[in-house]
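Entry for the shared binder. Reason: the reviewer on the internal report wants the predicted structure included alongside the sequence.
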Amino acid sequence: MIDNSTVKVFDLGRFVGKWYEIARYEHRFEKGMTHVSATYTLLDNGKIEVFNQGIKDGEKKEIKGKAKQPDPSDPGKLKVSFFLWFYSDYYVMEVDDDYQYMLIGSSSDKYLWIMSREKFMDDKLKEELVARLKTRGYDTGRLVFVEHGE
């Protein structure tokens, strides 16, 4: 059983901006991708524009989506959609006080990300985050560490 509990305090204003994937569980829509980033923009209607990009087979790939915070009383549970009205869970399980890294999961154990404001993360911090994910019950052996080049 995994512990995918989310943060109880989450500031969308501090969350927006560009994040880089440090590690993820491999899944069909990102399989083999490198140089992956996500940019979140808060819109006037309270929703969030999501712009993901990366490189796959030497080609730049981009996709736009949307996100929302359906229940303000549970602020770490977001919903993200890239296809019509099909929303997926996007659980902010941990974010540091300075909004420089975060751990993202979902309602199941199929999805997992370590995200950072920088392309590269200090090895010690990376090891600490992986250890915390393991304590939560995640199979950290499944993590794919994302290449960002120089």
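Summary line for the report: Strands lie at 17-25, 34-42, 48-56, 59-68, 77-83, 86-95, 101-105, 113-116, 143-145.
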